[in-house]
Structures are given as C-alpha cells and as structure tokens.
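Here is one chain, start to finish.
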Amino acid sequence: GDFVLRVGIRYATSPGAGTGFGPDWVTRGGFWVWQDYNGFSAQVGDLSVSLDRHDLNYHVFEWRYIGGTYSLTVDGESKGTSASSFRPTSIFFGHPPYGSSTWTTQEIDFVHIEPL
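Its structure:
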C-alpha cells in the first residue's frame, strides 16, 4: 500500500567515495540519498534530484508513495514527484560492500516508516 518514509540524516565529513541511504546499495529507484566526490543527490521515484554540491547540514528527507507516485520533500521543501512502479523490499545505510578510498561519513538520527 501507500506509505511515508522520513529520515533525519547529516553527512559529517567532506565527501569521499560515497555513502548513502536507499533500498539497497545498487538500486536507484523510489528513494535514495547519496553524497560523494561528485555531489549530493536524492532519488524520488524514477527521477534523480541534485541537491547542494556538498552539504554537511542536518536534513529531514520525506518520501510519500501514494497511488503509484513518489513525492520528496527536504526540510519541508518540495523537491519533486515521479510516478514509479518501484516498491522497496529493504533499506540500506552506509557504503557499498567493497574496498575503496575514504568513505563519506553519515549520521542517521532516525528512520520512520508509516503506512498511509
């Protein structure tokens, strides 16, 4: 069914090889937040949204999935909507499970998922 997902997150160090939050470490569908050397971005449905280049501030991300459409707000500001058939089956926090250079550090304050 429909749901709302809220995440309070902050990147605590300058961007490195990348760290994120999403349905898994590969899939960029539905919901996703990622920051690395190239910048800061989020996913809403099938749409990628660029955020501030490198942001170390605390933010609250909210995705709503209602009737086949995702909507995204960051700190209460709308960042986009996108129809999508993507349905998550898991949630991933961190960096991909392989070696690389210095990883970006993230701090997650809370994750709240609620059916609508």
